[in-house]
Amino acid sequence: MLIETTHAIDPSAEPPRVAVERTRLIPAMALSFLCRCPHCGEGKLFGRFLKTRPHCEACGMKLDGHRADDFPPYIVIFVVGHIVGYLILTFEMGYDVPLWVSVTLWPGLTLGLVALLLQPVKGAVIGLQYATRMHGFQVSPPPRPGAEETRVGPGDPAPAADIGRV
Ligand SMILES: [Zn+2]
Questions:
Q1: Region (Disordered) spans which residues (predicted)?
Q2: How far is the CA of 59 from the centre of ligand 1 (A)?
Q3: What is the dihedral of CA 105, 110, 116, 119, to 10 degrees?
């Protein structure tokens, strides 16, 4: 079967790359845990609860290419389960806790911790994917606001700061 393309592919038509150093792993995860852009740290990562913005408003970095999927809820369930489980065992074994306190306190505490942690943990997962070039973060990031640009021609090798930094 022959597939014809409507336009010729020109390898020299590649857009010029920009030598921009990617934020390292821990700072990128910390910035995005604080719901900031993992690249520049200035723009907001989320437009509303758990919904990432399409682009960073400060540097233009594409933010919606992540694949956080179910990993943030797994992390939150693991952490909150251990905290609340420990507290339930400690209080129920050590004190005579009234039933109405148990019925209201533990579900409320669980829901509160989940609501508090889910978005920052999703941000940290997005920061991890950004720093390790996973999924939608494989392309070189745009220059940071106020940073001096260094254009690289299509025939030049990739900038050293842009290769495999974690
Ligand atoms: Zn940004």
A1: 139-166
A2: 4
A3: -160
